[in-house]
Design brief:
Oligomer: heterodimer
Shape of chain A: elongated
Number of helices of chain A: 24
Radius of gyration of chain B: 25 Å
Number of strands of chain A: 32
Helix content of chain B: 55-70%
Helix content of chain A: 25-40%
Largest sheet of chain A: 5 strands, mixed
Strand content of chain B: under 5%
Distance between the termini of chain B: 45 Å
Radius of gyration of chain A: 35 Å
Distance between the termini of chain A: 136 Å
Number of strands of chain B: 0
Structural class of chain B: mainly alpha
Number of helices of chain B: 8
Chain lengths: ~775, ~170
């Protein structure tokens, strides 16, 4: 009994323990299942999520080639190089060109964005005198216009810095995937996410060497590792990580096709670092290292990218060329061994240099421009949409103008004899009629993504405000460019105690001068007198109509530019002038295309009449006189004789800011120079920013400013110095536009030349304006 | 002389007599191209003046640049007459835009016009067609503005001005 009961109790105890063990095991099993499920869920949701985790890709405007376009052979070749076209005498395939005497032949790549399609084609371009003389297609017949594919200038990646350029499954070269398998994962097509044979081999090698020397990660495991970026290399956590990776890899394999996994791998794997920007995927790496699309890589280039999979830092081809070369040639050898490429081809490829795109070919990261793209798009798109949904943004950037502007700012500041520490600068270039921003430079180092002065440096604009004062005067109907005002000392009562006595830059008074001269030579006292007569309110209103977003404070000092604006705000105001009084919002984006290729949005030209066309026409003629006779004369002299340009200098108090804004029919350019800490830089608008401006303009094109006189505008000849009516043949005579409703006497003598001339002048001065 | 008389009549007989006398005097005097520059011209432009004492510039004798009215646009009927080079490209795009418009794809027609405008922004016809597209898509405000913009570029071309006025009337 007792024994029995004891046995029974012993049995009971055993079964109880067994029960506990079973229960524990069941719980443990369920926990393991739950954890496994959790890992599988993590892996698949990451996989699904990453498919969409593509920052918006921003493209420059495509280069339009047409007869008559100002373009040199060098300019075109530079653009082709930026686009990664190869010089090839046989023109073998899209993306190649050959150069002859005043002639370039191109096999273009073609493109298609949301229904806007440009076919691949062979085109021969001949040049005469810095212009395109003719375009001919492969059959030798003339063609009107051809576009090159747009340059990818960057992407709106998140600040934590992963960037990628997605490659569609059909665009992945089979040789790439074959080579990846040959080098990284021989049994990819047959294993289930982990490769036991490779693991056993690796374990043997590692155990016998006492450390982890050889990896056996399959491509799927590498993909998982890339998703979860925990790269502990040793100890227990390394083993635990490997087990988790293996589990997740199996989970992914159960759920997805091999081809899906391979596609994800090609677009995901980490292949390099560009400052704060992590280069993910072969599409972007191809651009980053070779400046051309994946499909155009040659054998040795493809091999280098595969080599980088093993460790983009250790094998960094720009910093450790020897290691990268050795690894690349190892990959090439593997290709030959596996029969992926012929021995001859591999032999030839192994003799090639790394062939990286040089830094001179990547002069700009376009970061300032991309900053404005992001700012403008964020009005319509959530940040997450921009950074993760693979949008394609077709922008307005003209890459030739951008590089010209960057060079002009940098070399221009150098030519001023100042060193980098002393001051900074910014440049904005727009197309006045369409409002498209062609280029934006936010500082001297355009490859550095720092303070974007073109958008964020808010500085006193000085005399840049004067055109608004004069435009308000012209619009009032009480003044014309021929009207005479007194440039004499003036005391302005600010309040009961304080007065303001503006003075001219040369501390002289110039007496009675016509409006055109007062503006051309930027006389302060005459401008204050004019502005007070016109009224601060109408001037502020004019500024706002021209495009100033906020209403300025109505102090008299506003008349001389005691108003702080950013270069892009100045560009908006002057763009309205350059566009004949029609305001068009400055745009950086033409259209946005979704990842699936459908058009999401087009940003069309929208114009609004902001000022009287006749008044703006007259004002612009005065801005031409700024360049011919006034404060812009010194830089004007450096430009070709036959070009007509309009512009205005601006200088803030104590020479802290040097501004210039000026335009032709095709370009509005605003330049600013100043110190970030607002110290004086010792330059006026004409000794500083105007030179940068002229440098940019000289590098662009030779179009002039010209506009037909609108209805209701006549012209009359006056003496530039005094405003007296003068015969056209007289030495200082200029023609100024005036409303045809006003009466202007016509003179036959020169100002001050004869007694009768003097009588005419007194007659005019005494008469109505 | 006739203009002088006309202006004289406009201001009254007395002034006409004075002006006639002035004209006769100055016509009898030899035309002087070497007249001394007025005193005001001897000082350099203000903003250039201070940093360094620059030598006095010679009097400006070069002819003043004047903007001529732009020649009437030649792309209106692209095939009809020889064109300037730039309008060859913009003319082709204008044709393309018209074909797209006729086929009912208005966004594409608009995109082609905008391409043409980037090449040839002073061409009144392109702005007119853009305005006509705006009118067709119900954006009367833009259409009217485009018509006004075209008018400022039409210069003395009566046909274009009339077309712009028609568009403006239709939009208002």
């Amino acid at each position: 009994m007792a024994r029995r009961s004891r046995r029974a109790s012993k049995d009971g105890k055993l079964s109880r323990i067994r029960g506990w063990v079973l229960r524990l095991a069941a719980v443990g099993f369920m926990l393991a299942i739950a954890y496994g499920g959790y890992l599988a869920w993590m892996a698949t949701s990451e996989f699904e999520g990453r498919r969409w985790d593509i920052p918006a890709q921003v493209y420059a405007a495509p280069l339009e080639l047409y007869t008559g376009r100002a373009l040199s052979v060098d300019d075109l070749v530079a653009e082709l190089k930026r686009l990664g076209y190869r010089e090839d005498p046989r023109l073998i395939g899209p993306g190649t060109y050959r150069v002859g005497l005043a002639r370039v032949e191109i096999a273009t790549r073609g493109f298609s964005f949301a229904g806007d399609t440009e076919p691949e084609q062979l085109v021969a371009i001949t040049f005469v005198g810095g212009r395109v003389a003719a375009l001919r297609d492969s059959r030798g017949s003339r063609t009107a216009i051809v576009r090159l594919n747009p340059l990818l200038i960057g992407s709106l990646f998140a600040s934590h810095g992963e960037d990628r350029l997605i490659v569609a499954p059909g665009d992945i070269p089979p040789l790439l995937t074959d080579t990846l398998k040959a080098v990284e994962d021989r049994r990819f097509d047959s294993h289930f996410g982990v490769d036991p044979i490779a693991v056993m081999r690796a374990v043997f090698v590692n155990v016998s060497s006492g450390e982890i020397r050889e990896g056996a990660s399959t491509l799927t495991q590498q993909l998982v590792r890339s998703y979860f970026l925990t790269n502990t290399r040793s100890g227990f956590s390394a083993w635990w990580r490997k087990i988790r990776e293996a589990f997740m890899a199996v989970a992914l394999e159960l759920r997805y096709d091999k081809s899906d996994l391979l596609h994800a791998y090609v677009n995901e794997i980490y292949l390099g670092q560009d400052g704060a920007r992590a280069i993910h995927g072969f599409g972007l790496a191809s651009q980053f290292y070779f400046g051309k699309p994946l499909a155009e890589l040659e054998l040795h280039e493809l091999a280098l990218l595969v080599a980088e999979v093993r460790g983009p830092t250790y094998y960094d081809p720009r910093r450790h060329a020897d290691r990268a070369l050795a690894r690349r040639n190892f990959v090439l050898q593997r290709m030959a061994d596996e029969g992926l490429a012929s021995n001859d081809a591999v032999q030839h490829a192994a003799e090639q240099q790394l062939g990286l795109v040089g830094n001179e070919r990547r002069p700009s990261t376009y970061s300032a421009f991309l900053g404005l793209v992001r700012r403008q798009l964020s009005a319509d798109y959530a940040r997450d949409d921009l950074e993760r949904t693979g949008l394609i943004v077709l922008s307005t950037l003209d890459s030739a103008v951008q590089s010209a502007a960057e060079r002009a700012l940098d070399s221009g500041i150098e030519a001023l004899g100042k060193n980098a520490a002393e001051f900074e600068g910014a440049v904005v270039v727009t197309s006045p009629h369409t409002g498209e921003v062609k280029a934006l430079v936010g500082g001297r180092d355009a490859s550095y993504e720092g303070f974007n002065r073109a958008l964020d440096a808010r500085r006193q604009i000085g005399s840049l405000i004067k055109p608004a004062v004069y435009l308000a005067a012209l619009e009032s109907g009480r003044y014309s460019l021929a009207s005479v005002i007194d440039d004499a000392p003036i005391v302005v009562d600010l309040d009961r105690r304080n007065t303001w006595t503006p003075s001219n830059f040369d501390n002289q008074a110039h007496g009675l001068v016509p409006l055109v001269r007062a503006l051309a030579e930027s006389y302060n006292m005459a401008t204050v007198r004019l502005g007070l007569d016109v009224g601060l309110e109408p001037i502020a209103d004019t500024l706002q109509r021209l495009g100033l977003a906020q209403k300025p404070t109505l102090y008299p000092s506003m008349l001389l530019g005691a108003l702080a604006l950013t270069p892009i705000e100045v560009a908006q105001i002057y763009n309205t002038l350059a566009n004949g009084g029609f305001r068009v919002p400055l745009r950086t984006v033409r259209s946005v295309v979704g990842e699936d290729g459908e058009l999401l949005q087009r940003y069309e030209i929208e114009i609004a009449q902001a000022a009287d066309a006749g008044a703006v026409y007259a004002l612009n003629q005065a801005l031409v006189q700024v360049m011919e006779r006034g404060t812009g004369r010194a830089v004007r002299a450096k430009l070709p004789d036959d070009i007509v340009v309009a512009g205005k200098t601006g200088t803030s108090d104590d020479l802290r800011d040097s501004w210039f804004a000026g335009f032709t029919n095709t370009n509005l350019i605003v330049t600013w120079l100043g110190a970030d800490d607002n110290r004086p830089i010792g330059l006026t608008g004409s000794t500083g920013a105007a030179k940068i401006w002229a440098g940019v303009l000289a590098a662009l094109e030779s179009n002039s400013y010209s506009a037909p006189a609108p209805e209701g505008i006549d012209e009359t000849w006056i003496d530039y110095a005094t405003g007296a009516p003068t015969a056209a043949r007289c030495p200082d005579a200029i023609a100024v536009p005036v409303p045809d409703t006003d009466y202007y006497p016509r003179a036959f003598g020169c100002n001050g030349e004869t007694g009768i001339g003097a009588r005419i002048r007194s007659w005019v001065d005494g008469g109505a304006r | 002389m006739t203009e002088l008389l006309r202006s004289g009549f406009a201001r009254g007989t007395l002034l006409a007599c004075a002006a006639l006398a002035a004209a006769c005097t100055s016509l009898s005097a030899p035309p002087s191209r070497n007249a001394p520059a007025p005193a005001a011209r001897t000082s350099p432009p203000v903003e250039d003046a201070r940093p360094a004492p620059t030598p006095v510039p010679p009097p400006v004798t070069q002819p003043v640049p004047r903007t001529e009215p732009a020649p009437p646009s030649s792309v209106d009927v692209p095939a009809a007459r020889p064109q300037s080079d730039a309008s060859g490209a913009s003319g082709a795009l204008l044709e393309q835009s018209r074909a797209q418009r006729a086929a009912g794809s208005l966004p594409a027609a608009r995109a082609s016009l905008e391409r043409a405008l980037r090449i040839d922004p002073n061409n009144a016809v392109l702005w007119l067609e853009l305005g006509e597209l705006d009118l067709q898509t119900g954006n009367a405000t833009q259409a009217a503005t485009m018509a006004r913009k075209a008018m400022t570029l039409a210069g003395r071309d009566g046909r274009l001005t009339a077309r712009a006025e028609r568009l403006l009337r239709a939009a208002e």
